[in-house]
Amino acid sequence: MKWFALFILLPVSFTTVAQQINTDLQIDSLIQKLQENLALKKDIEISEIKGVYKLTPWHFAPNLNYDFINNNYYLTISTGPIISNLLGKRQETRRISAIERRYTNLEYTSEIKLKSTYLQVIQKLTNINLSYDILLNDIEIYKIKAQQHEANEIDTETFLRERSSILNKIKSHNTEVADIQRYLLDIEQLTEYEVNLNLLHYFYPPLEEQQTTYPPLEGAGGGHY
């Protein structure tokens, strides 16, 4: 009975996890967050260059000149600042158009990446749901093997192979959960919006229950054989 003590709590924990799996990630809401984020960045970038070139009354202010030959004063208006401002305004318009085109393309490519990542998250969550029952079956088989080993019905080598197999399956499961977390981080990076999906319960042992004492598997360091 010592051999499968670690797994006695597993069906209860995974049942709770299976009930809590949340696939309510709304792709429309995520796309909206992405669009709002890009629109804000675009507006900030445009505001930094927009309105730099403005015609003011000073551009049309006349210059007072004196004609020494005719001995009189006269007024002139310099077109240089006006032409320079108009050229700058044209350049500003071109830069703004380039920024708008760049963000249009960025929004398109970002939406494709977001949708692809979203589908991968949903698929992996579904896979965890499906693998739950398989893992429970494997744990039941392990517990039977543990009982058989305690009763000396199977040899230690056969039992240790079963033990290694179930540990590798738990390891693979936890790796799949970690992969989901990485995909969620990609979504958060794209949208700059925190995805509220708690994955701590998906790990085994559940990370939110790490203070619970789980009996160690014996045999790893010369225990019962």
Question: What features would you describe in this structure?
Answer:
The chain is mainly alpha-helical and 225 residues long. The protein has a domain at 11-49 and 105-209. It is 62% helix and 4% strand. It contains 4 helices and 2 strands, in the order ααββαα. It has helices at residues 10-20, 27-47, 80-150, 156-191; strands spanning 63-67, 72-76. Strands 1-2 form a two-stranded antiparallel ribbon. Strand 1 (63-67) and strand 2 (72-76) form a beta hairpin. Helix 1 runs antiparallel to helix 3 (80-150) and helix 3 runs antiparallel to helix 4. The chain is rod-shaped. The two termini are 12 Å apart. Mean pLDDT is 75; it is low at 1-6, 8-23 and 208-225.
Describe the structure concisely for a colleague.
The protein is mostly helical and 225 residues long. The chain has helices at 10-20, 27-47, 80-150, 156-191; strands at residues 63-67, 72-76. The chain has a domain at 11-49 and 105-209.
